[in-house]
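re: ur question from yesterday

yeah so i grabbed the chain u mentioned. its 262 aa long if i counted rite. heres the sequnce exactly as i have it in my notes:
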Amino acid sequence: MEGTYKTKDAANKTGIPGNLVRKYSQILEQHGFEFNKVSNTRCFKMEDLRLLKAIHERAAGLNEDISDVVAAILQEEILQETQIPSAEASAMVKHTASVEDVSATIRQQNKKFEEFMGKLDTLAQLNEAIIHQNSTLISQNRQKDDKLDELMQQVYVKESKQVEMIHDLVHHVHKNKSKQDEKLNDLLNHMYKKEAKQEEKMGKLINHVYKKESSRDEQLMQLIREMQETKRMIAASQEQTFLKSIRNMFVRFKPEKASSRL
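ran it thru and got these structure tokens back, copy pasting raw so excuse formatting
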């Protein structure tokens, strides 16, 4: 649109920072002032730029609330449009002259304000860098969280499999233990039976040994009796032989005695 300016162009044209252009425009709209708009974007005319510049200079030179300044300037604009009396017009001209007298101070303040805005821009860039870094860290943390969730899922699956394996192992051990207990009971029964047979055999053997010992004792006593009988018979025989020898001696001695007498 010819003869109109966007916010950035209006700021360059008037020397007013873009954020203040937006602020003044919003306050003007709150007081009923209307701007031309294209696609919901303000389009400033030269009269609008003059009004914005007046507001900026008045706000910088006076210690008044910006809303009061805007209201006063709009009131002045209305008075000018309705052809206000000459006395009031001359007073306004004098007031405008006094405003121009402090324009140098305003320009200095504008310069300081621009420096301040430059620092704000630097801070905004730093803030954007920090936000970008934080976004990167958040993205990395999300990736780590996703990996951690995946790892926890894997651990959960492995734990489930391990629990299932342990359950199967316990079941297998219990089953094997039952079989082992059965085999052990069979082995113990076999050993008990074998031990009973061995005890039976041992009892028979002991009885046999007792019987043999009894028989041997009887045989030994019989042998002792036979030996005693033999000794007795030998003694009797020896006694008879001795007596016979003595008798023979007496018999032999008698004939010899008889012959000597002859």
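noticed a couple things. The chain is about 85% helix and 0% strand. also Residues 1-101 form a domain with the Multidrug-efflux Transporter Regulator; Chain: A; Domain 2 fold (CATH 1.10.1660.10).
anyway ttyl
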